[in-house]
Amino acid sequence: xxPGVAAVRxxxxxxxxxxxxxxxxxGDVLVADDDSVVGVLTDRDITVRAVAEGLDPQEVSVKAVCxxxxxxxxxxxxxxxxxxxxxxxxxxxLPVVEDGLPVGMVxxxxxxxxxxPRSAPADISRSEPAGGPGGGADA
Length: 139
Known about the structure:
CBS-domain; 3-stranded antiparallel β-sheet; alpha+beta; Diverse_CBS-Domain; CBS_dom_sf; 4-stranded mixed β-sheet; CBS_dom; 139 residues; 6 helices
């Protein structure tokens, strides 16, 4: 799990979310209201569901293009449970939620490091993006 989490409110614009992603050098943010996670927004969601459709990212809310009601895991769930959920729901990231509040994210890279620490995906997950922090693309 990657501890800590970047989150935006459902009514935030895509521009706000994209700026947060750039500042934090991440490719996803949680969409959360006052007391729960309501979605996950990725850089790919912004590109494919909004920009490619000709929507104005300054006017469109993150709620309009995020993946709603994301499947989540708890901080003490096993790696195999997270992997099974990712496979079953065809997702690459899962929010880690405890008592209804987000505490982190687990992604494919995290699973690679946990299951096969010397594998190529684990090595890639641990490396800096091309061009150093903030300089690469999140795949």
